[in-house]
UniProtKB/TrEMBL annotation:
GO terms for biological process: signal transduction. It comes from marine sediment metagenome. Coiled coil: none annotated. PROSITE patterns: TIR (PS50104). InterPro entries: TIR_dom (IPR000157), Toll_tir_struct_dom_sf (IPR035897). Pfam families: TIR_2. Residues 16-147 form the TIR domain. This is TIR domain-containing protein.
Length: 149
């Protein structure tokens, strides 16, 4: 069921093709894929690599396009995330976008705690995050609440 209701008009007026870009490490797909599916089911327009990328696509061009055309970046922070090249590039792009716009980074701490996030990035630890340990339904509801307010 689409929970965006009459607010959908606001998203159409934003000029962005997607509500959410999901940045994650491939090792975290067991959490990310069901979350992305649930967010779509709730009415969010989601850029998620498994939904968008097709054989032969340029990763860099498609990711850049997805980042530019998204209102928010959902960043699934985990130990894997901080060890991988592509998720770091996506995060760098979102941080650059934040300097031009309002808050765009929506962090999810996945199997990681605040102390670990601080070790990797003190500035990310300062952003209010949700935790995957709360369950996919709670995480999705918190993200949808941000989209509608």
């Amino acid at each position: 069921m689409n929970t965006l209701g009459h607010s959908t008009k606001n998203y159409l007026l934003s000029g962005k093709e997607y509500d959410l870009f999901i940045a994650h490490a491939s090792e975290d797909k067991d959490f990310v894929t069901p979350l992305a599916s649930l967010l779509r089911k709730k009415g969010a327009r989601v850029w998620y690599d498994d939904f968008i990328l097709k054989i032969g696509d340029s990763l860099r061009r498609e990711i850049d396009k997805g980042l530019v055309q998204s209102r928010y970046g959902v960043v699934v922070l985990s130990h894997y995330f901080f060890e991988k090249h592509w998720p770091q590039k996506e995060l760098d792009a979102l941080v650059a976008m934040e300097q031009l716009d309002k808050s765009v980074i929506l962090p999810i701490w996945h199997n990681i705690d605040r102390d670990s996030v601080i070790k990797y990035s003190p500035t990310l630890a300062d952003i209010k995050a949700t935790k995957s340990s709360q369950g996919i339904d709670v995480v999705a509801d918190e993200i949808m609440q941000r989209l509608t307010h």
